[in-house]
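Cross-posting from the chemistry board since nobody answered there.

I work mostly on the small-molecule side, so proteins are not my area. We synthesized zinc ion and want a rough idea of how it might sit in this target. Sequence and SMILES are below. Is it possible to get a predicted 3D structure of the two together?
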Amino acid sequence: MTADHRARRLLLVHAHPDDESIGNGATMARYAAQGARVTLVTCTLGEGGEVIPPELAHLTADRTDALGEYRIGELSAAMKELGVDDVRFLGGPGRYRDSGMMGVPENGRPDCFWQADPDEAAGHLVEVVREVRPQVLVTYDEQGGYGHPDHIQAHRVAMRAVELAADPAWRPELGPAWRIVKVYWNRVPRSVLRDRLARAAERYPLVADEQDVPGVVPDETVDAVLDGADWVDRKAAAMRAHATQITVDGAYFALSNDRWQPLLADEYYQLVHGPAGSARPERDLFEGVEAP
Ligand SMILES: [Zn+2]
């Protein structure tokens, strides 16, 4: 059976603008180009981020606190590079504020995402799920990949929304129940990362630690690999659009901590819900979704 790509709908749930391009830029560009509907839900504006270009340093939370607004523009430029036109902020832009890294005082702000009521936040996502009716959802693992509170909360909200969206008795005013077929978590296979970090160390004075990179797992945990060779240029362009957060240099990039890490062309996933495709690793997140 030939897949009708236009019937495919992919939903990605991320914490901050830039996470989608780093983790899934090639995947998003590929499915969008094939005609699938690609929807991104970003949970915060990333107001708590640091800023790399000195001329934009005034945007940070401790100065003009204008970074969130600015990052809406960066995200929209990044999505143009990926060919994705359906981008939403959970509950609307600014509904949930960036919580900052784990342990900082901002974690306690009543308006931050970490303090959000999970069912209330999931309700905003259920509304999107029931409208878009995605077959496949991509988000983080229960550690949020690397322990950032907003990433952990994005995981909780996404997983809760998968469950609630499928329950016809839960808030029927948000639309008819919808059951997502497959759920994936973002992963990076440890051997790939180690190899690439070793190569980065030959070029750059400082490289990232393994634990700085979200979602690193033993290779055998990876269930799906998306070949990004044809899409990595789009991914790099999208990452460059997040200029306050990312410096791109060929096949590597650095965040504001100046520690270099690989810009991965291939993207890796763990299947946590739904039918596995016939081959492992799967090469297409929609394998097994279209009924014969
Ligand atoms: Zn993030």
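Reply from a structural biologist on the board:
Welcome over. Reading the output above for you: The chain has one domain: 3-273. The chain has six helices and eleven strands. Happy to explain the token format if needed.
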